[in-house]
Amino acid sequence: MIDLYYWTTPNGHKVTLYLEETGLEYNIIPINIGKGEQFQPEFLAIAPNNRIPAMVDHAPAGGGAAVSLFESGAMLLYLAEKTGRFIPADLRGRAEVLQWLFWQVGGLGPMAGQNHHFRNYAPEKIAYAVDRYVNETHRLYGVLNHRLADRPYVAGDDYTIADMASYPWILPDAQGQSLDEFPHLARWHAEIKARPATTRAYALVQRINPGAGGVRTEEERKILFGQRAPTGKS
């Protein structure tokens, strides 16, 4: 059994996509980030960066003590290695998947996240910041579109964790983009959206966080965007 500490964000969806594709048994433990539940000591023991998702695998390969992980990219790689699914076994195929997985966690996710913040959540709309991140998101959409021009999936012929990592971060309406400009990306996005496992993963939103839709109160804004490191040696 896997305990998944989850909230309804793009990074949370990455892991539910994988779990639903493989049928691994898992238990969701909701972490309501708008209420500050990510700062609870029990969660911080697993996820010291106080971000979701995190997970505990109580039945790791080879047995032994449970394995806890934070960081969605690390979790996808761990699960792929645990099951031997959605990552190639050969050296070159694995390298293709890993470089695009790291591209997402180092580029698409952070840049699109800043896009969301300055475009949708910031109380003051700073034109330079909005333009900076909308343009960079546009550039990254173009990178994916070019990559998908001659292959069905990001790493080649097969659906992998590289696709699962990027798919939840393609949110054109929220990011000031149009998929009409990116036909290969649009084709890929539609195909993944139609997968039964994707439907099941996203159905969790209404069960876990009905009416999900960004920052709704000033208190949520303070919790999500006002964090500083604790002082002292703690």
TrEMBL record:
Domain (GST N-terminal) spans: 1-87
Determine the domain of life of the protein's source.
Bacteria
What is the name listed in the Swiss-Prot or TrEMBL entry for this protein? Thiol:disulfide oxidoreductase
Write down the SUPFAM superfamilies for this protein, in alphabetical order: GST C-terminal domain-like, Thioredoxin-like
Q: Where is each GST C-terminal domain found?
A: 90-212
Q: Signal peptide span per the entry?
A: none
Query: PROSITE patterns from the entry?
Result: GST_CTER, GST_NTER
Family stated for the protein in its record:
Belongs to the GST superfamily.
- The species this protein was found in: Lichenicoccus roseus
InterPro entries registered for this protein in UniProt = Glutathione-S-Trfase_C-like (IPR010987), Glutathione-S-Trfase_C_sf (IPR036282), Glutathione_S-Trfase (IPR040079), Glutathione_S-Trfase_N (IPR004045), GST_C (IPR004046), Thioredoxin-like_sf (IPR036249)
